[in-house]
TrEMBL record, chains A, B:
GO terms for molecular function: acetate-CoA ligase (ADP-forming) activity; ATP binding; metal ion binding. InterPro entries: Acyl-CoA_Synth/Transferase, ATP-grasp, CoA-bd, Ligase_CoA_dom, Succ_CoA_lig_flav_dom. The keyword Ligase applies. PROSITE patterns: ATP_GRASP (PS50975). This is Acyl-CoA synthetase. Keywords: ATP-binding, Ligase, Nucleotide-binding. Residues 496-549 form the ATP-grasp domain. In the N-terminal section; belongs to the acetate CoA ligase alpha subunit family. PANTHER family: 3-HYDROXYPROPIONATE--COA LIGASE [ADP-FORMING] (PTHR43334:SF1), ACETATE--COA LIGASE [ADP-FORMING] (PTHR43334). The keyword Kinase does not apply.
């Protein structure tokens, strides 16, 4: 038996801090359990009351004569601490602390919360909260509404996790309005113990839960563990589909970042990475969350991107077509047989091609025949059916027909019954049979798109990992020698040497400290050369006119040295100028940026994107946290919008994408071996044609100053 | 008196084709008018019935003894035609034809529709439909529900225009569910006569309409007239705010377009241009349409982008903050005085900075004092207030306080009362007082963003037009000489000559037909030169290896000629090769693309975007139709995402944006003078630093083959 069973399906519940006063949380939660028809036994605890709502009250949990599974605690922090001690002594299995005033207010509240957590950990008891709305399990066998919302939702196969209690009330109201059913519903508040991952594990094993909706404020645990576990939960033959709204303030980005990567690695980008890697579909609004949950709850997969649309009205058919295409779907091309078949059932004024218009006066039969025909077409992966109430419309009959056809097909059918009142009986029939149904065609089409996204995740390819050798010992030596010199910002010379240890191809380069040395080095390296200022203070060299390319002669190298030093001094008179780097000219290629940034909460995030303005203005970059192997790397590269630039654009040969994948894996290995690396930008990296590798054209590495 | 008054506020209505059979449209519309409490006089017309729903029935409209304002016609096309003749003879002022079977089925239906239109035009009568849902006017003085929806919406200051009848029913149900009120509601079907522009003119004059929602399928009239008139309607001191959902199939783009511009000028991009130029806010979903309508209906403007958020729960406050920032808003920084003031009213655990958290146990007073304080802060342009139902929450009291404060402030207050049931009395109070209120914080924040967008449109700058001289006569000569030669695709030589007439700076260039000529021309033009293949069949020269840049010597020019001709022949053996263009090397600059495409329905659309992959992969382009003067041009340039690249990026000098504006205006003039131009691509145009102009690096112009 899972310990969370004591929370979700307790045989007995004690409400500690139950109150006789209506409107008080301690009263309302007790009343909600009592009047919610809880199937177990309920005990109020309050030293001052004889009974509450006619139920005998106990002065302390110690005095209850029977075994108790779950304690709901509604008491201020100090009393709550005492109550938890009593609960442990009493052998209680689970605790939900509803009250606020703990970690979120700091000080003593935080200390008490930590103490409670320790005590319960030792006693092997799980805690939900503090500072939460409570727990709801609407299933007929339990019927527990241990929350301060007086609405018990209907029973269904979707479970909900909310960090915010406030949102819960609104979501319950919204769900009631939509006739939406839940399997389990929980608010986790401060997450002193039970958090999203615990619940996802539990829900994944729960036969009554197929879809989980999360409202997440922040992830307070190791993201790598979260990603590793959740991606198993969302994958495989029996996946749990997870949808999340994640809110995170946009201004919390690392303002003082020395690298592009660092400045782009805001919490929003990082959570995007976590959710994508875990296979969680991110939603922007509560409407989207509900719309998508419905379609995943129907337990069908959209095996391909070709859909058929069946409608009895032109306008909504057009909207559905548009939104489908915007959601990554395509309209299927029917076979001749399908079209011949449709001619048998539909009047000549109908549209026999996709989107099929069965015409306004369609009754049940026309819908039934059309749906049965198009869903059998081998080129159709799913059907979007639109019904608008018109004079001959038979919403209930059509719904019955849809339910019958859906029962015998593996392909998903998503319905849009427009209008709320006229079609409500049909809608209810569809809902009862777990057929997703929406009020507007754009919602239906968007949900279909989300379903396709989900199916793609489930059927993603997994290739064997690359076997790459690294010289981490040498890299360690370089890093240590920099740290000894208290040099925390590493320029191209040291950066390139470290990258070489991880399989990157770098350019020949030497530091010149005089005009003549620059000319000599250029001769040795071979013309043409590039020359760049070297100064710890000048991070963006081109802004300081500190880069000159295509220098062809010794004389040009000499002059370039003088100009670069002069311009750098003018740009930042306080900068310490080490000299000018003389570098082999990079062979041309597509400019990309690779980077790493370390966030305090999340560890290292690896970034990939196209270089130049693509990163700076279009912000067309993507992040991944650990684990980052070959498959994650491949999906990262494909996720940027500019991906076609790499696959052979305008007669250009395809770029060496495999080498890029290896580099991303290697960068991950590098920061795992050398966690002192705080930020890294390889900008640009030139990617050459397939099989021809890449060249690092510039690199900057920042180390953590732990002194 | 406006002729549409007979449609929206008739003193008497005849229902021609009224029926005694429940479920028939002719019965239901009659019943809906009758039971909807219509304030005028209602006459059923049916040759076979004595009375319908107890109301005396007439065999023909000719027999009704009293004057009739409006005829609702529910009859098949041939009988409808006869009925319209009778109506005209009877002196009726307006006609609504509900029945289908006209233009949309083609053939005889189309012919009858055209005949009806002609007859009514001659008789000076307006027609709505055919193929429409009807007309609704919920105002107490009229109370007309001449539709086949049995729901009469509440009265409000928002009017609705729908092309689709099907959507109307759904929208009415949705509105009823949201407690949403309408001023006028109309479905226009085939638009034989009355269309969106007619109704926008009427609604603009209507004192009861402040906001118009449109569901548009296609615009069947001159877009220039539409833009000119609607931008006046949406502007000025007494604007009508217009919101629209526009659906248009994505695959209808010009597939065979010879230019980038042509291939990007799909209907979606064109409608984006029309709506943006007309000042119409485009919505993607019906939810958005309703959310935005509510905020504009409140008749307040958001003068700046700084908002304050007041909440009693952390989570929703974070969501609101995020979505506000995503919607182009910023969180205001409070003055010290505001923060001091807040300390007087809020408990120490509150958050005194934006977003202000008044803490879960806030009752009315805390909300009232906080709202009054932050709205008085000079740095705050508007307030988003979030209330989540908690134990001390006083939804109605807080709503009262908000209403009082809103009454005395010019700044908008947008509310989010979370939960549907618990807070419903507060929500109703807010709605009654025209305060926009939403269920979820992201909807509220998005609506605030839309309001800001609307206010920006109202306060847009209008600068005097540029005075540019053109040599349209010379351009005409060049075009005519090409047409005479049956040359419809003009390459760089002719294209550049035409562009010169319109003030573009082009490069020195000559056509070489032999190796030696190429070398000679290069000497004359001056090294380095660019060489390009010239062939009407090869439009994308670089794909054919047909461009060589930076040629420095006569020998290089000679070799380049041979290679270019050989590669072109290999690329397309059927291509006719005119020779190789030898061209002055363009001075460097930012690559942009300017283009024109002529669409059959819309006329010429002028495009602007960044060149290269920005246009091809990121599709970061924007279109405008006529009228296109200096101000539209300026807003076009600012609308692309890559705009910062032009304003001085990474130490680059700002580009000559004024010259770009002039070019856009000039291109518009060019295609107005020479409508035979079908497509035009200037790709790339190099934009130099401010004041230094631009250089055309390549151009292709396609003329219409009218033979």
């Amino acid at each position: 038996m899972d310990k969370l069973d004591a929370i979700f399906a307790p045989e007995s519940v004690a409400v500690i801090g139950a109150s006789t006063k209506k409107g008080k949380v301690g009263h309302d939660i007790f009343a909600n359990i009592l009047f919610g028809g809880y199937k177990g036994t309920l005990y109020p605890v309050n030293p001052k009351a004889k009974s509450i709502l006619s139920v005998k009250c106990y002065t302390s949990i110690a005095n209850i004569p029977d075994p108790i599974d779950l304690a709901m605690i509604i008491l201020p922090p100090k009393l709550a601490l005492q109550a938890v001690e009593d609960c442990i002594a009493r052998g209680i299995k689970g605790v939900v602390i509803v009250s606020a005033g703990f970690k979120e207010v700091g000080g003593e509240g935080l200390i008490i919360e930590q103490k409670i957590h320790q005590m319960c950990q030792q006693a092997n008891i799980r805690i939900v909260g503090p500072n939460c709305l409570g727990v709801i399990n609407p299933s007929a066998e339990v019927s527990l509404n241990a929350s301060f919302s007086n609405r018990m939702p209907e029973s269904g196969n979707i479970s909900f996790i909310s960090q915010s209690g406030a949102l819960c009330t609104a979501v319950l109201d919204f769900a009631a309005d939509k006739g939406f059913g839940f399997s389990k519903f929980i608010s986790i508040g401060n997450k002193a113990d039970v958090d999203e991952l615990d619940l996802l594990r539990y829900y994944h094993k729960d036969p009554d839960t197929d879809v989980v909706m999360i409202y997440m404020e922040e992830l307070a645990r190791d993201p790598e563990q979260f990603i590793r576990e959740v991606r198993e939960i969302t994958s495989g033959a029996n996946p749990t589909h997870v949808l999340a709204i994640k809110s995170g303030t946009s201004d919390a980005g690392a303002l003082a970042a020395a690298s592009h990567t660092g400045s782009l690695a805001g919490p929003d980008a990082i959570y995007d990475a976590i959710l994508a890697q875990a296979g969680i579909i991110r939603c922007q609004t509560v409407n989207e969350l509900f719309d998508y949950a419905q379609v995943f709850a129907s337990k069908k997969a959209l095996r391909g991107d070709k859909i058929a649309i069946v409608t009895n009205a032109g306008g909504p058919g057009i909207i559905a077509t548009d939104m489908s295409e915007n959601s990554g779907l395509k309209l299927a091309q029917f076979t001749d047989e399908t079209i011949r078949e449709l001619h048998r059932y539909l009047p000549p004024t109908a549209n026999f091609h996709n989107p099929v218009d069965v015409i306004g006066d369609a009754a049940r039969d026309r819908y039934e025949n059309t749906l049965a025909t198009v869903i059998s077409d081998p080129g159709v992966d799913g059907v979007l059916l639109i019904l608008t109430p018109q004079s001959m419309t038979d919403a209930v009959g059509t719904a019955e027909a849809i339910v019958n056809i859906a029962r015998n097909s593996v392909k998903p059918i998503i319905c849009c019954f427009m209008g709320i009142v006229d079609v409500s009986d049909g809608v209810k029939l569809l809902q009862k049979n777990h057929l997703p149904v929406y009020h507007f065609p754009e919602s239906a089409a968007r949900a279909m798109g989300a379903l396709y996204q989900g199916t793609k995740w489930l059927s993603r390819r997994t290739l064997p990992q690359y076997d790459i050798q690294y010289d981490s010992k040498k890299a360690e030596e370089i890093i240590n020698s920099c740290l000894e010199k208290e040099q925390y910002i590493l320029g191209e010379l040291d950066g390139s040497r470290i990258l070489q240890c991880y399989g990157f191809n770098t350019l020949k380069m030497e530091l010149a400290t005089s005009r003549d040395e620059a000319a000599d080095l250029a001769e040795t390296i071979g013309f043409p050369v590039v020359m760049k200022i070297v100064s710890s203070q000048i991070l963006h060299k081109s802004e300081a006119n500190g880069v000159k390319v295509g220098l062809e002669t010794a004389e040009e190298a000499r002059e370039a040295f003088t100009e670069i030093m002069a311009d750098a001094a003018a740009y930042d008179p306080a900068a310490e100028l080490d000299g000018v780097l003389v570098q082999q000219m990079a062979p041309s290629g597509t400019e990309v940026i690779l980077g790493v940034s370390k966030a305090p909460m999340f560890g290292h995030a690896v970034m990939f994107g196209l270089g130049g303005v693509f990163v700076e203005i279009y912000k067309d970059v993507v992040f991944s946290l650990a684990p980052l192997g070959r498959n994650v790397a491949r999906r990262m590269i494909k996720r940027i919008k500019g991906y076609p630039i790499l696959t052979g654009f305008r007669g250009q040969p395809p770029a060496d994408i495999e080498m890029l994948e290896k580099h991303l894996v290697s960068l991950r290995a590098m920061v795992t071996h050398h966690p002192v690396i705080k930020e890294l930008d390889i900008n640009p990296l030139f990617v050459h044609a397939e099989g021809e590798g890449t060249t690092v054209a510039d690199v900057i590495i920042t180390l953590e100053d732990k002194s």
